[in-house]
Design goal:
CATH topology of the largest domain: Rossmann fold
CATH class of the largest domain: Alpha Beta
Strand content: 15-25%
Number of strands: 13
Shape: globular
Order of helices and strands: EEEHEHEHEHEHEHEHEHEHHEHHEH
Strand order of the largest sheet: 4-5-13-10-11-12
Radius of gyration: 19 Å
Number of domains: 2
CATH architecture of the largest domain: 3-Layer(aba) Sandwich
Structural class: alpha/beta
Distance between the termini: 49 Å
Length: 391
């Protein structure tokens, strides 16, 4: 078994240290309750980039920098190792010379959520957790149901009634209990909290447990490797709960400590639906936290998160990385989805398509230039959203 460098957990807000050997949700300081971040003894690592190259191209090739200490507890369905595609035809048609799409749609269960759930369920298994609950806009519920089935862990999923039927049925096939709610993901989250308090389920909500983030950060590790350890100029990311955005930040900070990348950082751009654009509003009004905004249904279900739990950290990262935030309409999302499909033969999730709409707008505003090396993170497969796209 290879060396593992997992050390402890630290609160993203107050920096309080927590022991990673115990079941944890958020900071135990009740005046804080911040998200917990996994920490590693990176300065002690003897792992090299050459070591990584010899391994299968999947999430667990970076296993020394993931929190599962005993490899026997790893629960995997083959997640990670997604392609970085150069969007030549799309870029040329709209004036970009270095446009790329990292396509997460080929992950198990059809989205990037597989990364987070593989690590979270693996660590839950290691800690002896036997039943978990989650609020979801769709893909996270499907992923936790699948990985829970693989691990033999009981899963309860709360999701808005407007979630595409495919997501609901897939959860049921994996054996999860699905509870539909007439409301948004925030309403589902409140019910999950009640269930966990009353019946002892472990709450695996976005950034209310430490380990989903660790799976998501591997997108940053992979992207750096795919660009030969030289980061791009701009990364656009669909921002609901914000885990993936934080994951890129965490990955790049860790990679610099390891000496695998330099100090250069991309501008990180948060893309939201204009139906649910609390991060956009807070960023442009120079706020340090987000006020909940929910204007109802959007074709991009994953973007309907009124207020991210780790909102303060998301805003800090956008500022530190000289990024920005932008809201996109459903009409613009569907137009962008059509353009990506027609030019690149890729059928992205609406959340991923929103990034292309944002890219065009930011180019028109001279925030992104034609020569920038731009990466769009398509977080899922469009086939899972057919109810929304043409229903």
């Amino acid at each position: 078994m290879s060396q593992n460098y997992f050390s402890h957990l630290v609160c993203a807000e107050c920096n309080k240290r927590h022991d990673g050997n115990f079941v944890q949700n958020v900071c135990t300081d009740f005046n804080c309750l911040g998200s917990l971040l996994a920490q590693y003894k990176l300065d002690e690592s003897t792992v090299t980039k050459e070591d990584i190259k010899s391994r299968p191209f999947n999430l667990w090739r970076y296993r020394e920098f993931l929190p599962v200490v005993n490899s026997e507890n790893i629960v995997t369905l083959g997640e990670g190792g997604t392609p970085l595609l150069k969007a030549d035809r799309l870029g040329k048609a709209f004036g970009f010379s270095e446009l790329y799409i990292k396509d997460e749609g080929g992950n198990p269960t059809g989205s990037f959520k597989a990364r987070g759930m593989s690590v979270a369920i693996s660590k839950a298994k290691e800690l002896g957790i036997t039943k978990v609950a989650i609020p979801t806009a769709g893909n996270a519920g499907v992923a936790i149901a699948a990985y829970g089935a693989k691990a033999g862990i009981e899963v309860v999923v709360y999701m808005p009634i407007e979630t595409p039927e495919q997501h609901k049925q897939e959860c049921r096939y994996y054996g999860a209990k699905v509870i539909e709610i007439d409301g948004n993901i925030g309403d589902c989250g409140k019910l999950v909290t009640e269930l966990c308090q009353k019946e002892g389920y472990f709450n695996i909500s976005t950034l209310k447990e430490p380990y989903r983030l660790e799976g998501k950060k591997t997108m940053g590790y992979e992207l750096a490797e795919q660009f030969n350890w030289e980061l791009p100029d701009v990364i656009l990311y669909p921002t609901g709960g914000g885990t993936g955005l934080i994951g890129f930040w965490k990955a790049f900070e860790e990679l610099e400590i390891l000496g695998w990348i330099g100090k250069k950082r991309p501008r990180l751009i948060a893309v939201q639906s204009d139906h649910c654009d609390g991060v956009v509003s807070a960023f442009h009004n120079k706020k340090i936290s987000v006020e909940a905004i929910d204007r109802g249904f959007t074709v991009a279900n994953g973007l309907r998160v009124p207020k991210p739990y780790a909102d303060k950290l998301v805003l800090r990262i956008l500022n530190d990385y000289k990024g920005t935030a932008i809201g996109i309409s459903d009409k613009e999302i569907l137009q962008a989805l059509s353009e990506i499909s027609r030019y690149e033969g890729l059928f992205p999730a609406p959340e991923g398509a929103a990034l292309w709409a944002a890219t065009k707008q930011l180019k028109a505003q001279n925030i992104i230039s034609e020569s920038d090396k731009v990466v769009l993170i398509n977080t899922g497969n469009g086939y899972k959203y057919t109810d929304n796209i043409w229903g």
